[in-house]
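ENTRY TYPE: protein
CONTENTS: sequence, structure tokens:
***
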Amino acid sequence: MTPAVIQLAAEAAERQSAEVTDWGARISWVVGLLVFIAFVYWLMRQGWKWRGALQSDLPELPAAPSGLPEHRLALTGRYHGSTTAGQWLDRIVAHGLGLRSRVELTLTEAGLDVVRPGANDFFVPAAQLRGARLDKGIAGKVLTEGGLLVVTWAHGDKLIDSGFRSDRAAEHAAWVEAINSMNSSITTEGAER
């Protein structure tokens, strides 16, 4: 190589290494981004509180009575939330119904006992059960077709759909059959009176 080529290569290398990071601008962009993320999180939290305030007319959730009869079915899995019946995106957040959690479901002749570690437990009396079905989604959770057990129940003057997923999804069909047969026998008994 000739000295002129070496000189040109050295000047090109010097020009490339001469760029200096503007730390002030970079830090201000990072701080701005963090403030924006915090603001969006704050808005989401305010929306959650606002939805809870709108649903404050929902009565307290019933607790399980003592001395429940022998269980017909039991499962462990996930509770994915509750919505207004038939409106799978209208999440109910009042009384902790919007919080996802682990769940232990027990179906007895008295009703459905929902035990949620870390969240509010509740009990759905058998007379309040309206039916069950397999579905693919509920308020922020979408699964494969039939991957979600949705139980419809009445609470106050509102019909509610609650979504559950068993650790063993093959159990869902038995739950749908048991709850629907329980509901039809309650409806039939009520009609005979």
